[in-house]
Each structure stands twice: as C-alpha cells, then as structure tokens.
Write a structure and sequence with these properties.
The chain has 79 residues and is an all-alpha fold. Helix content is 54%, strand content 0%. Helix 1 (3-15) packs antiparallel against helix 2. This is Acyl carrier protein.
C-alpha cells in the first residue's frame, strides 16, 4: 500500500466516507463526522499508520485533506 493509499484509508475509515469524498474541499467540520472527536481519531490513525508523533501545533493546523499532506511531509512521510 502506498503512502497516499494509507492516508486516504485513514480518512475513509475514520469518517466513514467514500473515496470520491476525498477532495481539496474536504475540511475540518465540512462533514458531520469531522468534528473535534473525529479530528483526534484521524490524527491517532495517521500517527499509527506512519509511526510518527504529530505535535499539537500541527494537530491544530491540520485543517483539510489537502493541507494534511504538507503536515505529514514535515514528519518525513513521502507522497
């Protein structure tokens, strides 16, 4: 599984959405399941998948599907 596939699967499984919902418009609170609890579940899933620990400032700044790529790249994840 590629890193993009892992990243996508974290969103799909955490928020129970379809792959077609993974667009640049997918942002925090743009869907009911991406609330504060869902956000922390997503972060935990990404940390587990990529064996990283995301700093709190980055957790707060992780506001969309699109910006998440940049955040994970800071931790050495290659896409």
């Amino acid at each position: 599984m590629t890193n993009v596939e892992k990243y996508d699967s974290a969103f799909i499984e955490t928020f129970e959405i379809d792959r077609s919902d993974l667009t640049d418009e997918l942002e925090y609170q743009s869907i009911p399941s991406w609330d504060s609890v869902g956000h922390m579940a997503l972060i935990a899933e990404l940390e587990d998948l990529f064996d990283i620990s995301i700093e709190m400032d980055d957790v707060i700044d992780f506001g969309s599907y699109k910006t998440g790529f940049k955040t994970l790249e800071k931790y050495g994840v290659k896409f």
